[in-house]
Specification:
alpha/beta; Rossmann fold; seven-stranded parallel β-sheet; two-stranded antiparallel sheet
């Protein structure tokens, strides 16, 4: 199963061109990594990321606050281009934020104001892996201060970088080797309890997805143990660096 990376950020019309360019590079890197881009189907920085991903042949899903295409375009003034799929939640702007975050395996914050702050709060409280593209103004440049003030342990992991490509690569590395073991607060009762395993399945050592019995796209045997994979892409990555993924799986 391909990972979904949500890009949440400023949707204003007066965003500096340099910020838009970096958001575009972010989208390009997400597509190059064979991940799905999730946005709030809004203009501004998320749209720039969507355009970047689209230019690289990526798949882009937009989570709309609207009930219909007409409401999306004419009431909210939101774009339809550069998105392969639009999901109409009918939840309004704030309700849409929850769907944005829960639809994403990884959340990236780029610029933004109060709406982005709400998405950051949801992602942090639910233990998501979060990336912050610093140097893009707004919320992204004060996230570290906000989280230090909160002093709340949720299991979330936050990475910071002003380089879009480096940020995505580091997020994927952490997710695939560490964070998939605690992808959400809903997977554990507290820090003393083991993470709940889904019934009748094994975990893909590359992406961390649970693969139901009989549904593996590929299998490998190493050291007397069997490993299953959700896709041929994950199996190929395992073949390239088996030691890396086996060490992470044993931790």
């Amino acid at each position: 199963m391909r990972l979904k990376i949500g890009v949440m950020g400023g949707a204003g019309s007066d965003i500096p061109e340099s910020y838009l360019q970096r958001a575009t590079l972010l989208g390009e890197e997400i597509a190059e990594a064979d991940c799905i881009l999730v946005t709030g189907a809004c203009p501004g920085l998320p749209l720039a990321a969507a355009r970047g991903a689209s230019d690289r042949g990526g798949l882009i899903i937009g989570i709309s606050p609207a009930l219909s295409l007409d409401e999306h375009a004419f009431h909210y003034g939101s774009p339809t281009l550069a998105h392969d799929v639009l999901i109409f939640t009918g939840s309004g702007l704030m309700g849409r934020e929850v769907v944005n975050i829960r639809s994403s395996d990884i959340v990236v914050i780029v610029g933004g104001s109060s709406g982005t702050l709400g998405e950051l709060a949801i992602a942090y409280d639910e233990g998501k892996l979060i990336g912050v593209l610093t140097g893009t103004g707004g919320i992204s440049d004060i996230v570290e201060t906000i989280l230090e003030t909160c002093k709340k342990e949720t299991g979330a992991r936050v990475l910071y970088s002003d380089n879009p490509q480096q940020l995505i690569r580091e997020l994927l590395e952490v997710y695939r080797t560490e964070h998939f073991r605690r992808p959400s607060v809903f997977c554990r009762g507290n820090d003393n309890e083991p993470m709940l395993e889904q019934a009748e399945g094994k975990r893909d050592p590359v992406c961390g997805m649970n693969v139901p019995s009989g549904k593996a796209a590929a299998r490998r045997r190493r050291g007397g143990d069997d490993y299953v994979f959700c896709s041929l892409s994950c199996a190929e990555k395992f073949d390239e660096q088996p030691t890396r993924y086996l060490e992470a799986a044993r931790q």
